[in-house]
Design brief:
two-stranded antiparallel sheet, about 20% strand
């Protein structure tokens, strides 16, 4: 018989503890396809209770991945994170 493995995912508490160990003024990114492709500028609690990170201007189609107070996908085909309050800047084109 195979041993039972408990798969654990990071919680907000775990994330906060890890972040305390890192430079507090560093920018935060998401590693995707081997490159830091997405800056993390938005954090919210989803309809299903998870915590989501995203960049500005990202589209979400799934109802469960939207913020608690957002319309569901039947009411609005897609929900979008807020736009960068600074607008587009040269910093958006920097080399990671």
């Amino acid at each position: 018989m195979l041993p039972a493995f408990k798969i654990t995912e990071m919680t907000v508490k775990d994330l906060i503890e890890k972040l305390k160990e890192l430079p507090q003024e560093a920018r935060v990114f998401h590693l995707w396809d081997g490159e830091p492709r997405t800056a993390i500028n938005v954090v919210y609690e989803t309809k299903n209770g998870a915590v989501m990170t995203a960049d500005y201007g990202q589209v979400c189609y799934s109802s469960s991945a939207r913020p608690k107070d957002a319309k569901n996908s039947e009411e609005d085909r897609y929900w979008q994170t807020e736009k960068d309050p600074r607008g587009y800047t040269e910093e958006d084109e920097f080399d990671y």
